[in-house]
Amino acid sequence: MKKLVVLSGAGISAESGISTFRDNGGLWDNFRIEDVATPEAWQRNQELVLDFYNQRRKQAATVKPNAAHYALVELEKDFDVTIITQNVDNLHEIAGSSNVIHLHGELFKSRSTKNPDLVYEMSSWELKTGDLCELGSQLRPHIVWFGEEVPMMEIAMEVTEEADIFVVVGTSLAVYPAAGLVHYVGAGKPIYIIDPAKPDISLKSNMTFIQEKATTGMEILIKNITNK
Ligand code: OAD
To answer: Which residues make up the binding site for NAD(+) (predicted)?
Structure first.
């Protein structure tokens, strides 16, 4: 089976009702990254950071995967599919995708502030000051904040290098190192980009830009890469 590797971003979950970050009215229009999504923010105002992710978690718990998430599950019949997602929601997993790499962490998990290997499934939407790991230290959201290492990047690069087809869907490609993954795709391998707005990338001859929302764009992609 050919290897199909997908880099997804907030745009794939937009039609499920989750805000993107950089569109008009997106999350970063209403919050400052440096207030809620950096290690310094956590040191300065833990309550604000906890509340920001509690609200995200509460909202994400109410939404459902859309046809674009399900299309990626369907593609597993024809391809060996790996999804590298920048999203912290769990809609790829709920839809049923088998191989999902979360580059920026997972909203429904918490992590020890003492030992980053201690990661816990959350049973409620709320993470509070005083919620402790088994070593007795405060739990934090299991999110990769700006300025932090991206531990899953190494594996994401390896998977990307092996891709026969690479698909970019719903990401502005504004955040590194994730955005740099397109440069790890093997020479001449086809790259499909699905987005209603052109991401910040110069289109090369092996790239096909499908200027559509994720749901419609995935249908077009499937016609392009399968006989369906
Ligand atoms: P952005 O908000 O930067 O980009 C969203 C992309 O989705 C844009 O290119 C939109 O044009 C596109 N889009 C909007 N609606 C869409 C739809 N219905 N179908 C398909 N595409 C649509 O989000 P990301 O690129 O995911 O990181 O952002 C990358 C990272 O920046 C996030 O993981 C997050 C953020 O800060 C952290 O918080 C660490």
So the answer is: 9-28, 86-89, 170-172, 214
Q: Provide the annotated active-site residues.
A: 104
- pTM of the complete model: 0.97
Name the closest-CA residue to atom 8, ligand 1. Answer: 172
How far apart are alpha carbons 163 and 184 in whole angstroms? Answer: 9
Q: How far is the CA of 228 from the centre of ligand 1 (A)?
A: 29
Which residues form the domain of 202? 1-18+65-104+150-228
Distance 59 CA to ligand 1 centre (A): 17
Ligand 1 centroid to 133 CA: how many Å? 31
Task: Calculate the CA 200 to chain-centre distance.
Answer: 17
Reported as a single tens digit per residue, the pLDDT across 168-216 is 999 999 999 999 999 999 999 999 999 999 888 899 999 999 999 999 9
**Number of structural domains found in the chain:** 1
Which element (helix H / strand E) includes 223? helix 214-225
Q: CB under 6 Å to ligand 1: residues?
A: 9-11, 14-15, 20-23, 26, 37, 86, 104, 144, 146, 170-172, 174-175, 195-197, 199, 213-214
Q: What is the largest CA-CA distance in the chain?
A: 55
